[in-house]
């Protein structure tokens, strides 16, 4: 069901061929760290026609990234022989080592733009400043560095999980400083845009404050929630519906990565957890005495507050929130069914905004949820029903 990286890249190529704009990214681009993010960036840049070089301390991660088409392994001997240097270095290493990798790249490649994509920005900027103070690098070398963070990812790690289209319509934060060279900032912005992302400019401190709530709290909440399931009976788990799946997907994330993210941003996260604990304490007190005066109002208030927060989450492409209409189609669990439904949707001239497949435990059928803009729902139901599909 999920496209392979090659299919994904082919689809992306079609898009980038038509949207490819002029850019200021010095090439070749060296991706240092070929895990989920580095390989996705390599795939996306290759699809846009850029030359990409790859390096990673893990030979297997490197080989897989090259095999699936994210770029060519940087051969340091032939690079030294030809004198060819990367024009841009994208450090896509784990947060703990990103600072050192940035400093090393600034030293090794005297004219390259160097950017990183780690999930925390203040601690890494601080390491680069410290390297200048300690005279390991000059201020001029440091001015080629731009801290960035694509707000797109997956709950899986490694190059096998990479997707060239990962960044399409996702926010990509650029944390330039006054001392950052304008050509480095322009290259970082162009790279984000070339991969289909939307650029947001903010300081490292603003970024870290924002992601504490927007990204780090969701991970903590999902992990705490899913950890309750560890000793649950299989029977109870077999009742799991979308509520549980929607709220626990990212609980499958890599512990090694998240221990680095959460500790690096701990001062921003802790106050938010205190606020959440207050709400939780209030709810516990209420539910321990659910028939007391005001208890129902208290619970309703809590859910309403959640409604208000949820309604503020922006929709696709950063547009205002828009509730898509969902049409659920019953499909046999056999090859070709999904393609057949989607072909019929396309023939009806209706755009698919989102797609999701659910299986009911114990049945050989799937429920394909096709999201469309609200005004198109009735037409889609009619078209699919006329073509013999069971719309539920
Ligand atoms: N996973 C996400 O959803 C996500 C989203 C946005 C940003 N990020 C950031 O991207 C970076 C990479 O995350 P990922 O999800 O791709 O992790 P990953 O585990 O999939 O890949 C990390 C890669 O870095 C390599 N590596 C380890 N030490 C290195 C070093 N010293 N120099 C170069 N490479 C090294 C590893 O061998 C591995 O191949 C992290 O800084 C993370 O914070 C992750
Ligand atoms: O969607 C996911 O699976 C993610 O993990 C994405 C997510 C996020 O919180 O949005 C997680 C951490 C990254 O730093 C950036 C993006």
UniProtKB/TrEMBL annotation:
Residues 326-392 form the ACT domain. It comes from the Bacteria. One of its GO terms (molecular function) is prephenate dehydrogenase (NAD+) activity. Residues 27-321 form the Prephenate/arogenate dehydrogenase domain. InterPro entries: 6-PGluconate_DH-like_C_sf, ACT-like_dom_sf, ACT_dom, NAD(P)-bd_dom_sf, PDH_C, PDH_N, Preph/Arog_dehydrog, Prephen_DH. Its EC number is 1.3.1.12. Keywords: Amino-acid biosynthesis, Aromatic amino acid biosynthesis, NAD, Oxidoreductase, Tyrosine biosynthesis. Pathway: Amino-acid biosynthesis; L-tyrosine biosynthesis; (4-hydroxyphenyl)pyruvate from prephenate (NAD(+) route): step 1/1. It catalyses: prephenate + NAD(+) = 3-(4-hydroxyphenyl)pyruvate + CO2 + NADH. It is an enzyme of class 1 (oxidoreductase). Belongs to the prephenate/arogenate dehydrogenase family. This is Prephenate dehydrogenase.
């Amino acid at each position: 069901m999920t496209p392979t990286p090659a299919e994904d890249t082919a689809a992306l190529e079609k898009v980038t061929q038509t949207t490819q704009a002029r850019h200021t990214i010095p090439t070749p681009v060296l991706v240092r760290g070929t895990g989920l993010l580095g390989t996705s960036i390599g795939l996306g840049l290759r699809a846009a026609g850029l030359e990409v070089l790859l390096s990673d301390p893990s030979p297997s991660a490197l080989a897989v990234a090259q095999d699936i088409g994210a770029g060519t392994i940087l051969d340091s001997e032939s690079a030294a022989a030809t004198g060819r240097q990367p024009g841009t270095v994208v450090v896509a290493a784990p947060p703990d080592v990103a600072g050192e990798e940035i400093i090393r790249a600034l030293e090794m490649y005297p004219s390259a733009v160097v950017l990183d994509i780690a999930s925390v920005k203040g601690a890494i900027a601080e390491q680069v400043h410290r390297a200048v103070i300690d005279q390991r690098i000059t201020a001029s070398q440091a001015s080629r560095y731009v801290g960035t963070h694509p707000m797109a990812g997956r709950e899986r790690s490694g190059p096998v999980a990479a997707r060239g289209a990962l960044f399409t319509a996702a926010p990509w934060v650029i944390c330039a400083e006054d001392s950052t060279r304008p050509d480095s900032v322009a290259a970082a912005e162009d790279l984000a845009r070339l991969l289909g992302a939307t650029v947001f400019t903010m300081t490292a401190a603003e970024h870290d404050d924002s992601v504490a709530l927007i990204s780090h709290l969701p991970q903590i909440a999902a992990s705490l929630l899913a950890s309750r399931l560890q000793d649950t009976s299989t029977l109870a788990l077999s009742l799991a519906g979308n509520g549980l799946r929607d709220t626990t997907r990212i609980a499958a994330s890599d512990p090694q990565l998240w221990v680095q993210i959460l500790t690096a941003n701990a001062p921003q996260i802790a106050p938010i957890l205190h606020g959440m604990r207050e709400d939780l304490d209030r709810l516990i007190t209420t539910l321990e005495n659910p028939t007391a005066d005001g208890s129902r109002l208290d619970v309703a208030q809590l859910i309403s507050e959640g409604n208000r927060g949820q309604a503020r989450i922006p929709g696709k492409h950063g547009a205002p929130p828009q509730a898509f209409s969902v049409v659920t189609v019953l499909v046999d669990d056999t090859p070709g069914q999904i393609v057949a439904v989607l072909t019929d949707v396309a023939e009806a001239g209706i755009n698919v905004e989102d797609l999701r497949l659910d299986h009911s435990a114990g049945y050989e059928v799937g429920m394909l949820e096709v999201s469309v803009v609200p005004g198109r729902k009735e037409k889609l139901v009619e078209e699919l029903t006329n073509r013999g599909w069971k719309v539920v």
